[in-house]
Amino acid sequence: MGELAAIANAIVWALTGVLTKGVAKNVKPTHIVTAQVWIGLLFLLGVGLAIGQIDELVNIKLRSALFLAGGALVNTAGSLVFWLAISRSTISRVYPTTQSIFISISVLSGWLFLGDNPQIGVIGGAILIIGGVILLNWQPSESGESEIAETTTGRTKPKRKPRSDFIGIGLGVVTSFLWAGGFLSTVVGLEDTPPVAAATIRNLVPAVVFVGVFVAFPSHRITRVFKGSGIRLTAGAIMFALSALTFVVALDNAPPGVVVVLINTSPMWAVVFAAILLRERLTRYALGGAALSMVGIFVTLAFR
Prior knowledge:
This protein is mainly α. Helices cover 74% and strands 2% of the residues.
């Protein structure tokens, strides 16, 4: 069950990014994260009420609550940086950069600090998936087209490479380190906590923080941008809540090393969804990367 939840998390998280990518230009990363934690919190509270686990929130051990809260804050910081990266670059660049580094850091940290010795399947799967995300990120120039661009007057001029690509990739690197810290903290906090309660805390803490932020900074209030982008923000927030839930379910039922490898197949799904929904180009390298990621999933599950 944990392995299936991890794969579901990868799919849902990829769809979250694609849905949110289409919001209006005046929507800032703080607006996106606010919508995710507030709407996601309401969704998870509804799930807790429906399955009768809402009482578990008041019975969580202090140590677990602190680790979950700390992980939530670090993860939220990572999410802010991630959406800033998405706004400055493309999904097909940011996702592979972020996830490939996140795999390496998390597997190594889990071995050093949690005693989670990676098995041969995890190592092999991680190598294949990292190779897959490198291919997904590979965008060579085609027949010199990347060097020359035609102007409206019929003249040609050198085509500059967008500076935002470098900024987006750099922000993706920062995101991977923050998410790795949040991942480790969540693993520890989940030891004595039911999954729904854990996912709710991971949304509750940043939701409370953002109340103070938007009282102090009215220009960042979500009500200013909800009109026109409300449907995408809401859909992305529900996907975010499902991602949070499948994430803790996966960690509660499978080794951390296996989970971190499987959830990082999200670049494969992100590129496919981006090609279908956002009309981003799907190259042969992207197809090769997707194939490597699929093989990585098989190796992780079959040889662990």
